[in-house]
Amino acid sequence: MGRDTRAGKAGLSDSEASKARGAAKVSRGALGGRWVSLLLALLAVTAVVWLYYAQNDFLEGFEARSYDLRFKSLRGPLPVQSDITIIAIDDKSIAALGRYPWTRQQYVRLLDKLEASKPRVVLFDVFFPEPENPAVDAALAQALARAGNVVLASTFSFDTQGRVTGRMGSLPALEAAAAGRAHINLRPEDDGVNRRNDLRIAYLDGASGQTRLMPSLGLSAALFMLGADSFGAEPFRVWIARGQELLRSVPVNADGALWINYLGSAGAYPRVSFVDVLEGRADPALLRDKAVFLGATALGVYDMRVTPFHPNTPGVEVHAAVADNILSQRYVHRTGMQALFDLLMIVLIGFLSFFITARMRLQRAMAVVLGLVVCYLGLAYWMFLQGQWVSMVYPPVAALLALMLGGGWRFMVLERSARQMRAMFSSYVSSKLVSQLEQNPDAARIGGDSREVTVLFTDIKGFTTFSERNPAEVVVDRLNEYLSAMVQIIHAHDGTVDKFMGDGIMAYWGAPLPQADHARLALRCALGMKAKMAELTDAWRARGVEPFQIRGGILSGRVVAGNIGSSGQKMEYTVIGDTVNQASRLEGAGKTYGIDFTVGESTKRLVDADGEFGFRRLDCVRVVGKTEPVELFELRPAAPSADQGGADPLVDRFEAALGHYRARRWEGAVNSFRKLVADFPQDGPSALYLQRCIEFQARPPSADWDGVFNRQEK
After folding, report:
1. Of 365, 383, 411, which residue constitutes the final position of a domain?
2. How far is CA 647 from the centre of its chain?
3. Which among 239, 227, 272 is positioned nearest to 84, based on CA atoms?
4. 323 and 219 Cβ atoms separated by less than 8 Å
5. 652 lies in the same domain as 710
6. Element containing residue 251 per DSSP (H, E)
7. Contact 429, 98 (CB under 8 A)
């Protein structure tokens, strides 16, 4: 116990000394490793915090998309405020009243009709900046004064710094007669989505020389519905009051904008057609004591906005959503408290991910960190349901960056071009073609080249009527069932699905890889689609639901095919050119002739030799913008074999009748087509030609008529 410590050390054996040195080295190495891990953790967390404050465009784009995802795909629609109704300037009203914009006399009639329903406030998402004529303008001013509850719209212009440079509103006499003014400015984000609304805009009133606040149309609706007599703006809130009573405290961002809590897709709020109000067909209960927004819902008026729920939402519904948020107090909060929470989660999750990575094998650490990220995403979504918008992107980025650095992740770029091809084409090209593209990635390069292809367009007959007769969820379910079945048929015939256009489909053959039998594949696909529709129809009838049918157009020709867009940003492989336009018109022609599939002469010529398909000559037409006529044919099953008669009686008799027509033998043509209609009462082309021949018999065409029918519409 009294030994000199130095003597003890000196007395160590060589092996013991070596072990001691090794242990010290390991200890120092472990300590150094922990310091490196800590430094890497600090680096990762600091980098993400810096990105958060810098508002990196890339990550902010993901954050915005995650915000939209929470609305549309996670939370879904919610019940809307019952005190809001929209009077729609819709297609029905335009069809009844004529081309829009209408004379202001129609608005006078509307306000007079609304007087009996007694809405609380009427908010115009339209304005009248120029005189129409003195009498009509005076009549509208009188109608506004009589109503006493109409708010007229204004719109502001801004410079690059966001300062107001001008205002456009209605005529001074109209604004003086109205109960109020409100701005309708909607400023979308960089990606085009409208996520927020400026609840008030400060502007210099030229009449008084004072700076005033003009409320947004949605805020103005809330003011009237709440019976408020004042509102004002403070940092991060807009207040609404009646006398000394605070009615609402609306959370806004630093710029005074409300993050809109969208409650549903286009059509979420009750709509009443403008013309139905004029004609007295509107249910008064939908208008009485309501905030009634008047605005355009027809696509042709071009007042459509992109929202998280839908890319074509009428602007008036965005204003209605703002009013709904304020009246129901269902807000989305994103202020300093939410930013503090984001920073806390970035630091906590980043360091926790490093801690996990340092103590577990990489594979297990990956699973645990991913589980941690999933738990955080669940928390962020739950907070969103409570009206709190916290980041769904930055904390997970901190976790993944920590995992990469702490675990020594290495990225391997293997077969990058092949993976890009699969990612680009797998959703709309058959797996067989994708495999070929993986072997030949240059087939989908930026730009394009000239290809001979066959293009197919299809559309559902009477889908608009079907949509109007059925609830939205039924329409969507049936449309998804139909589109899924048709895509399977297209892929089974090695076609490329280019795009969906509502209920329409565009597909093509011959690109991105050449296909020698592109016309044959397209025609087989069309017959397959027709057969599948028959199966779907039987299944729908068995389920007691309404069936529908399709029509299509098919044309072969030269197109420009290739990836069109910006490399690394946004690309879409497609085909463009006159052939595509003409194929679309052939699909529309099917409605005129009452047939399922209209085929162009160029496609028929490519498959004529083998007799696999049957065709009926329909017409020779000259379309708008073209001088050369085009022969149109109906796609039919192959003609019966010789031992079965060898002919299609309808086709043969129709061809003979068509000969009379083109030879100007009107009496013979009328008699022939009349017999065809009697024997085949469901045959649309025969009925069409019978009517046409009767008209030509009464008023023959000019002497130089060449048998070509000149179409007046596209």
Report:
1. 411
2. 48
3. 272
4. yes
5. yes
6. strand 245-251
7. no
Range name among 61-65, 268-272, 417-421 with the lowest pLDDT average: 417-421
**What is the secondary structure of 552-621 as a DSSP string?**
EEEEEEEEEEEEEEETTTEEEEEEESHHHHHHHHHHHHHHHHT-SEEEEHHHHHHHGGG--SEEEEEEEE
pLDDT tens digits along 295-333: 999 887 778 899 888 888 999 999 999 999 999 999 998
Same domain, 599 and 507: yes
Residues 617 and 663 in one domain: no
Pairing between strand 614-622 and 709-710?
Answer: parallel
Give the model's confidence band at 413: pLDDT under 50 very low, under 70 low, under 90 confident, else very high: very low
Q: Are 199 and 238 in contact (CB under 8 A)?
A: yes
Is 243 found in the same domain as 120?
Answer: yes
Cis peptide before 172 (omega within 30 of 0): no
Average pLDDT of the chain?
Answer: 82
Residues 446, 570: Cα–Cα separation, whole Å: 11
Identify whether residues 63 and 155 lie together within a single domain: no
Assess whether 468 and 492 both reside in one domain.
Answer: yes
H-assigned helices in 119-216: 134-147, 172-177
H helix or E strand, kind and range, residue 375: helix 362-385
- The pairing of beta strand 614-622 with beta strand 630-636: antiparallel
What are φ and ψ of residue 629, in 5° steps?
A: -70, 160
Has residue 6 been placed in a domain?
Answer: no
pTM across the whole model: 0.52
Rounded to whole angstroms, the Cα distance separating 352 from 661 reads 84
Chain segment 591-609, per-residue pLDDT in tens: 888 889 999 999 999 988 7
- State whether residue 83 is helix, strand or coil: coil
State the DSSP string of 519-550: HHHHHHHHHHHHHHHHHHHHHHHHTT-----E
503 and 368 housed in the same domain = no
Classify burial at 668, counting beta carbons within 10 Å of its beta carbon; exposed 0-12, middle 13-18, buried 19 or more.
middle
Residues of 310-334 as b/e, b for ≥16 C-beta within 10 angstroms?
A: beebbbbbbbbbbbbbbbbeebbbb
Contact 602, 564 (CB under 8 A): no
CA 602 to chain centre: 34
SS3 of the chain: helix, strand, coil, percent, to 5: 50, 20, 30
**pLDDT tops 90 at residue 223:** yes
Q: Are residues 169 and 243 in the same domain?
A: yes
In sequence order, the β-bridge partners of residue 634 are 598, 616
